[in-house]
Structure formats: structure tokens, C-alpha cells
Amino acid sequence: MQDRCTLTDACTTESFDWPSRLLLSFAIVVARQRDPRRVAEEIESQQASQSQNRAYREMEESPRSGGMSSPEAKLGLRVEDLWDIQEPQLTPSEKLNSCFESISVTSFPSAPSLQVEIKSDSSLAEAIQELSKHKLLSAPVCNVEAPEDASWIDRYIGIVEFAGIVQWLLEQSEGASVDMTGGGFFENLISSNLYKNTKVKDISGSFRWAPFLALQKSDNFLTMLLLLSKYKMKSLPVVDLGEGKIDNVITQAAVVHMLAECVGLHWFENWGTKKLYQLGLPTMKSGQLIKVCGDEPVLGAFRLLRQRGIGGLPVVESSGKKPIGNISMRDVQFLLTVPEIYKNERSITAKEFLMAVRSYLEKHQGASPMLRGTISCRKDDTVKEVILKLDSEKIQRIYVVNEGGDLEGVITLRDIISKLVHEPRGYFGDFFDGVTPLPPNSRV
Fold first, then answer.
1. pLDDT for residue 427 is more than 60
2. Which CATH superfamily is domain 118-260 in?
3. Exposed / middle / buried, residue 344 (Cβ in 10 Å: 0-12, 13-18, 19+)
4. Which of 75, 89, 160, 243 is deepest in the core (most CB within 10 A)?
């Protein structure tokens, strides 16, 4: 009714000439004869289009997306185009699966540190220094003995991770007659022949991620997302079979950054505006969390990380309820590369370690998530809010707390990705044959 009134009012406006009035009168007659349901559908479609245009404008105006110029934002627009043409009877999850299955992994933005490779004859000390210098958690290991025309599977012996080196060192050192709770242990470790002379190739067989599981350029986004979430891969090399080299390395963090750049797009908002508890997050509740009290030795925290095969754990107050910080396996770099943070300590506790690292970072770096204490969220926060926080803080996990600040669970990058897509029955077929063990809940 509002539309007709507007048209009628326009017809009586003196500024309109007779031809214009005639056309508007004709439009009124046509509008009155149309099916009201059809008119309502068109109005709804126009409103949806206007809403989408507003979302585009928000992205263009957003400082995060750089005026839609970032590769991640442009990739999000490709997903948006595919989302708009999906069959209407599909669920949002099925739509996203279909969209991501239609995009090749070659479209994923290149990793800025792709050129960094660790030579197989590098010592563990040299590998640690190289990873630290480039602020990397992992890098491909290039086989120096491979011929120039070698295929990718012969050219690379795997991916070395900071945590993998540390795990191996701790395993080899457990039988050593040194004080396992004091600074002397770490001083002896970084000055030992074990650390200085052992080659990366000598420990490659101990890596649970080596040989790595690689993607081919013909693989799609859905395969990549499932491997990074359900199948717990931290990073995925994309190999060029013809050239025998790695074209890209896709990490969980890179995927979450891509999602952060897609804020405002319809497909993202449809999923990202859901609250954590609506998606069953956190999956890891407080009672299931591996924790360490602030007054326990920090070496015990790193030992727990290794024994339980986890990437990080919360440091809590003596009550065991309130988190005061986070320790991850990558934080051991401060014990291996910055000995001044502990050399005056007879025994380093988890809390003292956090304080020492924060003090060091304040002097030498100036900005780090560790300087801001525990980064947390609430169960009624949206997925979008958590993604933006994970991406802006460059962290691997975020702790869920209640109104009183007590620990309720943890959400990791993998948890976020796992809620984006689902695995269709029989999707991988024989993809994993002879490569890696399947998770217990696999349906392939």
C-alpha cells in the first residue's frame, strides 16, 4: 500500500510533465493488478540485495579488508558468488561445503614465509635459530642429497616444527643427570653437543608429522579445511607435481585470517553471527583441560604438552579455576634462544616464566599477546567475535571464562574451522591409504 501511495503522490507533483505523469499512472494500474505475493517476494529480494550491498560497503570501508583489496577478502567474494547460486533447499552447511568444494587450493593466498626452508644437514641449533629469526613455528625440510630433478616426495623429507625439536630434546635429556627443575638444565641443554651437532635429518623419523601430508594443486578448499580441522593437520604444503616443489603452505592460522577478512559477507554472517554455545563450543570443557598451577615448575608444563600431545595449556591460580596465562610449546623458544630470562633463577615456575617472558618482550619487542595476560571470551560471544580476536592477537587458542572469570573451556583454531564445514560420507575414499592413521570417529 505504501508503494501505491508514493506513486500517487508523485503523480500529483507539479514538477512532473504530462508524459511522466502518464507513465507513472500506467505503473500504478499495473501494480494494482499484480499478485500481492509476487510483489512481496520482489520487495523481500530487493531488501536482501540492499542488505548485501550494505555488507559490501562495510567491507569496503573496513580497515581490515583494505577496501576489499586483500587476497583473502577477494576470495571471500568468490565464496559469496557461489553461495548466491546454491540450490535453495540446501542447508547453510551444505551450501558452504558446495562452495568450498568448487574452489581450488591454488586460490589460497601465498604464505609470506614460503621461501624459508630448513636444510636436512642443519643442526638442531641452526634450525631453531632459523625458525626464531623468521618467527615461524614450522618449515619444510629440504633434502640436500636429492638430485636437482627429484620429485617433491624425494626433495622434501618432511616439515620440522619448533615443538618437534623441543620434544625430541626433552625425550633425549630425561635420562641425563641434571637438575630437571632448575635453570641449569636449560643452560646445559643449549650448550650440549646433542643440541649443537644433531642434524635435522637424524630426527625426522621421530616427527609425528613427517613425512608430511601434502595437497596437490588439483585439491579443493573442502579437502584442505577438513584436513586442518577433523584430521588435526597444523599445516598443509601444496605441491606442484610437475615442478617437484612446494607452491604454498596453508596453516590453520592463515585460514582463520581469511575468515576474519570475510566479515560482512552474507555467507560469513550467516555462520559467524551464531553464538559459541549454539555451535557446541567449547568442545573441550574445563574438567577436561590439562592445566598447570602457577607455582609448578615450567618444565613440568612443557613435559605435559609433550606427553599429552597438545599445543598449549592454561596456567591457573592455586584454586585451579582462574587462568593467569597460557603456555604453548612454541614458548619454549624463550628457554632455548633467550637464556637471560632465566639465568638468575634457581628454579623457574610457570608463573615466573610468564613474568620473565613478559618483561623480556616489553624491553625487546613492545607488542605481544603474552603482554596482555590471559585472552578470553564468553560462551555467548559470537563466532565472528572470537575469530577477530584470534586473528588480531595472533594466538592459537582462546580460553572461555564465566562472569566470575573462572575457566570454562578452550577454543582452538581447529575448533573454529571444524564448525565451518562437515565431512560427507565416503568423501576421502583411499586418500589416506598408507599415509596417516584415521581418527577414531572417522566415517570414511
1. yes
2. CBS-domain (3.10.580.10)
3. exposed
4. 160
- Separation of CA 251 from chain center: 7
Assess whether the previous peptide bond of 140 is cis (omega < 30° from 0): no
Angle at 151 between CA 147 and CA 157, to 5 degrees: 80
Class of domain 281-418: alpha beta
CA dist 249 and 237 (Å) reads: 4
In this predicted structure, what is the pLDDT of residue 441? Answer: 43
Q: Is the pLDDT of residue 224 over 90?
A: yes
Among candidate residues 241, 215, 247, the one with its CA nearest the CA of residue 228: 215
Predicted local confidence at residue 331, as pLDDT:
84
Burial class (CB in 10 A: 0-12, 13-18, 19+), 121: middle
Cα separations in angstroms, 59 against 76, 363, 390: 11, 36, 19
How high is the pLDDT of residue 403? 94
Are 118-260 and 281-418 equal in CATH topology? Answer: yes
Query: Angle 221-228/92-101 helices, nearest 10 degrees?
Result: 110
Quick one: pLDDT band at residue 90, thresholds 50, 70, 90?
A: very high
CA 150/CA 263 separation, integer angstroms: 42
Q: Is 26 helix (H, G, I), strand (E, B) or coil?
A: helix
97 residue type, one letter = N
Give the burial class of 268: count Cβ atoms within 10 A of its Cβ; 0-12 exposed, 13-18 middle, 19 or more buried: buried
Which three three-digit cell numbers place residue 79? 565464496
Would you list the domain boundaries of the chain?
A: 118-260, 281-418
